[in-house]
């Protein structure tokens, strides 16, 4: 079903932070000629019918059963995928289907509000949470054809970070919204911690190694909303990037759009209703001393229907030092990156956005220069 998209995206802000309106007089999805700010160069235009990426469906129930044979087979599959491109699926994850459905319905409820209402949560310059319509104020070209809402989650059980955020920012009418996403983030945090156990065993370190590191995680939840686009062959919902965070646990609706760059070409990751897509981010790649890969990916749009996704970005506590376990540093694989904290990498990505496969190398050089 085509969901209406009543809001209008706003053009990039000028240096004096005045908001200028893109020349739009109707919702984005109704325009046959999209604004030039959203047109991507020929060498970056989307591939609308790429081949499917073969990624393993990982049975979390089987992994958590601790059956030695099942665990060994699952770890081998995850290791192969993460060394090649960092993407895999998790199935039999135990997440309540009704909770996922509620979360997707609330995406509709938020993004179909009038723009002034959504702008009550407007992301401020220099921040990475809040409502953003195409990252206005940060870029003047190659804008993504989407809107997002991002918010913090803390795994401190004495707080209800998400619920408090929506109540304080949007009022009592958003109590249910905050409650649902508080629960969703708690479930995603638990699932992410289980996945870190799997990743640890796949690397040959202890099951608890990465789980302990992320137990007190301070993560980010993002709701993605991609309106239909009359010229999907020239626009992108999200440009090519690597996630700077540790892990991304993504639930797609049933509209295809995610693409991954592997061996010099783009592949699609088809939606699977009962599965989450997991991918390695830059921070976790550093934790593995470069053994597991953070891979370029992007999102395309279509000319018929809205696409939505729920992305939970696992991030370590701000005081945790990102450094690989000693077992992963060898003569054959010496230490690749300097130690850092997640806020420092976040600062770098805010200054130098549109992260690519060389982000960690560039960050390492920047960090060494900064610490001279």
Task: Please give a quick description of this structure.
The protein has 372 residues and is α+β, with helices and mostly antiparallel strands. It has helices at 60-64, 68-84, 97-111, 115-118, 161-170, 175-202, 208-214, 282-287, 342-351, 359-370; strands spanning 57-59, 87-91, 130-133, 147-154, 218-226, 238-241, 247-252, 258-262, 265-268, 276-280, 297-299, 307-314, 321-322, 340-341. Helix 5 runs antiparallel to helix 6, helix 6 (175-202) packs antiparallel against helix 7 (208-214) and helix 9 packs across helix 10.
Topology:
Blueprint: E1 57-59, H1 60-64, H2 68-84, E2 87-91, H3 97-111, H4 115-118, E3 130-133, E4 147-154, H5 161-170, H6 175-202, H7 208-214, E5 218-226, E6 238-241, E7 247-252, E8 258-262, E9 265-268, E10 276-280, H8 282-287, E11 297-299, E12 307-314, E13 321-322, E14 340-341, H9 342-351, H10 359-370
Parallel strand pairs: 1-2
Antiparallel strand pairs: 2-10, 3-4, 4-5, 5-12, 6-11, 7-10, 7-12, 8-9, 8-11, 13-14
Helix pairs in contact: 2-6, 3-6, 5-6, 6-7, 9-10
Account of the 3D structure:
The chain is an alpha+beta fold. The protein has a single domain, classed as Jelly Rolls, CATH 2.60.120.330. Helix content is 31%, strand content 18%. The protein is built from 10 helices and 14 strands. It has helices at 60-64, 68-84, 97-111, 115-118, 161-170, 175-202, 208-214, 282-287, 342-351, 359-370; strands at residues 57-59, 87-91, 130-133, 147-154, 218-226, 238-241, 247-252, 258-262, 265-268, 276-280, 297-299, 307-314, 321-322, 340-341. The strands form 3 sheets. It has an 8-stranded mixed β-sheet. It has a 4-stranded antiparallel β-sheet with strand order 6-11-8-9, with no helix packed on it. Strands 13-14 form a two-stranded antiparallel sheet. Helix 2 (68-84) packs across helix 6. The chain is globular.
């Amino acid at each position: 079903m085509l969901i209406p998209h009543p809001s209008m995206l706003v053009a990039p802000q000028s240096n004096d932070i005045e908001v200028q309106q893109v020349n739009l007089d109707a919702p984005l999805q109704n325009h046959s000629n999209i604004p030039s700010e959203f047109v991507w160069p020929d060498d970056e235009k989307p591939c609308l019918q790429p081949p499917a990426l073969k990624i393993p469906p990982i049975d979390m129930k089987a992994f958590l059963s601790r059956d030695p044979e099942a665990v060994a087979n699952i770890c081998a599959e995850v290791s192969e995928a993460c060394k090649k491109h960092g993407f895999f699926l998790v199935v039999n994850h135990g997440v309540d289907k009704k909770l996922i459905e509620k979360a997707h319905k609330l995406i509709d409820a938020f993004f179909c509000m009038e723009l002034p209402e959504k702008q009550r949560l407007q992301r401020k310059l220099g921040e990475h949470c809040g409502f953003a319509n195409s990252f206005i104020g940060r870029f003047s070209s190659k804008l993504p054809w989407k809107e997002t809402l991002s918010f913090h989650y803390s795994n401190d059980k004495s707080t209800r970070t998400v619920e408090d955020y929506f109540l304080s920012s949007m009022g009592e009418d958003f109590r249910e919204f905050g409650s649902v996403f508080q629960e969703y983030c708690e479930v995603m945090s638990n699932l992410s911690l289980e996945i870190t156990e799997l990743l640890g065993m796949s690397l040959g370190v202890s099951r608890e190694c990465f789980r302990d590191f992320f137990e007190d995680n301070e993560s980010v939840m993002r709701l993605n909303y991609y309106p239909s686009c009359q010229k999907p062959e020239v626009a992108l919902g999200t440009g090519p990037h690597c996630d700077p965070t540790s892990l991304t646990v993504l639930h797609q609706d049933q509209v295809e759009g995610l693409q991954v760059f592997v061996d010099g070409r783009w592949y699609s990751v088809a939606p699977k209703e009962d599965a989450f897509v997991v991918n390695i981010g830059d921070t976790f790649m550093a934790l593995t001393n470069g053994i597991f890969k953070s891979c370029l990916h992007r999102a395309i749009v279509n000319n018929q229907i809205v696409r939505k996704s729920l992305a939970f970005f696992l991030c370590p506590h701000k005081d945790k030092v990102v450094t690989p376990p000693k077992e992963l540093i060898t003569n054959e694989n010496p230490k690749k990156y300097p130690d850092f904290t997640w806020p420092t990498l976040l600062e770098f990505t805010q200054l130098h956005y549109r992260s690519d496969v060389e982000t960690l190398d560039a960050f390492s050089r920047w960090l060494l220069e900064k610490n001279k």
